[in-house]
Amino acid sequence: MLKKNLFLLLAAATIHTTAAPAQNAYAEIARLSAMNESVSGIRSMADGAHYTTLQGNDIRRYRYDAATPGESLLPQPAPNLAITDYLLSSDEQSILIASGRNPIYRRSYTTSYSLVRNNTVEPILRDAEAPRDASFSPDGRLIAYSDRNNLHVYDIESRQSRQITDDGAWNEIINGTTDWVYEEEFTVTKAYAFSPDSRKIAYLRFDESEVPLMEMMRFDGKLYNRAYSFKYPKAGDRNSVVELWVADLTTGEKKRIDTGSETDQYIPRIGWTPDGRLWYYRLNRRQNVFEMIVCEPHGGQRTVYEERAQQYVERIDDKTVTFVDKERFLVRQESHTGYMHLYLYSLRRGLLGQVTKGNWEVTDVVGSDGKRVWYLSTETSPLRRNLYSVRLDGSDKQRLTTGEGFYTVAPSRGMKYFITTFSNASTPNVVSICDAEGTTIRTLADSKALRDELAATRRPVKEFFTFATERGDTLNAYIIKPRDFDPTHRYPVLMTQYSGPGSQSVADRWSIDWEDAMVDLGYIVVCSDGRGTGFRGEAFKKVTYGRLGALEIEDQLSTARYMASQPWVDPDRIGIYGWSYGGFMSLGCALKGNGLFRMAIAVAPVTSWRYYDTIYTEVYNNLPQYNAAGYDKNSPIHFARMLDDSRTRLLMIHGTADDNVHFQNTIEMARALNRAGKRYDIMIYPDQNHSMMPDDRVNIRLKMIEYTLKNL
Prior knowledge:
The protein is an alpha+beta fold.
């Protein structure tokens, strides 16, 4: 009994000695993070001379070229609305306000809607049970929205709603919004589009009745727990059958559009050309053939763009195709040269020419005025983003941003102005208005208080470096050293990474999180982007195709060995952390590291790609029916026996309501470790999702700081 009590006292003392430093260190990180300034809800107005922002619960209008106080677009006094988002009608006489947010999945939520019109605020869609994804028609007279898996249209003048579809049913049929996997992987929830004349509305219909059912247990502090069921297609399983429909809002007629005989495919985007022709994207199940198809008025269809790749076509998004006028459009693709570049196409004549060239990548299309295109690229460095403009024939390229770091850009209509948000490793956000030539007109936010404090306290910053692995691959990396770094001292190292296909963790932009608290507590933090990560060309990125977790783990092990060889590193105190794909990597490194790591933390890890969704997994790993080895050979579940638990302390963390990487992953990993007789630690967050929301984003970070202090 005495020994047991002594053990409990020692354990309590250990918890106490790590809890206080963890709380203090993270409180400082959270405080600094909150000081990083930004401007929210930027919307360009139709004249290209004004823009609006969202400030708390107030929507304000400003001139780009005048430093005058903003004018509120809401009636005074401002309505008591918790504004989540807002949209302006095309004539800018009405504002649609989403108030409140009831999350469904990562991007989807239901909300309450109000309409600001004629200097009044009126709640609308009161009869809707769970409205979502609302937007104005081009003429500003209608508002389309989804409610309980059906598409509806609200007439602003009559204040009446009309139901467009009536077969929507939970876990069976979805109209006008997307299913789980489209939302997560194609980053879209709204699955409808008004025609330019507002007379028709195209929408997608998802039949998910044959998609396997996933159940998550919900506890919610209740006496009896309950299962939450939703359709989630895992790699190799059935997807929704997706159809494209068009409803005539004048006649009420609905017509299904022929999208080909193959139903096991994706239709990730739909829309209308500027002159009113319906278009849609079509992507095969393997995701290595992508087409953009235009529907002609007489009923025919034409493929106006097609891309084929040996492994896969890079994930499409809203900027894959950008119309510059009624006839021409830009395509951003990498298959021609091995780097992501812009190409100009004609609806009738096909390829007109390559617009950008070089061993660097276009990362975003900002806008076009029909003569030039403005874009962000990695031309100065894969770690940075700068804004350029070039004529559509590829001539007269101009760099418009001068800072060495990372820019994001919000353009005006017609590209007369643009608003930049800039940061780099040592500089938090600076938000500026620039004219079309890149000249700064004024600064909207500069994070001055934060910058001054960072300088006064000599806050450690990322130092970028490259190193060559044993195999000869050159990797980009950064290191953060503690204040008053002493090269004669040996420091513990915490490696942080994500490592997923096409991702980037090593970037010259300002950020701060729990790892920085470890720097304050005397640890070195290191991050490297291994093979498979993005923005270094197609070959570097796609080399991991079909064998997820093989080469990436090799590169993280090489990073650890490289750090262990430094005279100021304690080679016996190297740890690794990752979340999601990074958690998959942390597990793999812990198990295959042969004791190289003293500690590993894996948050919400994928432990078998057989457990993850179709779109993400299959684009990088093919279907399991055709590549079983790519799924099983590198699954941590299958080499649990390799954990050297006498050397490596392993912590797995998961939320039980993770709809993305299911709790099943950690449960099956625990089963495999148990069968292998291995010791490990586990932390469970009841009813929390993939981001440890809604309650435990701070708690998990405190836990990871404490665990690192105790075991590294």
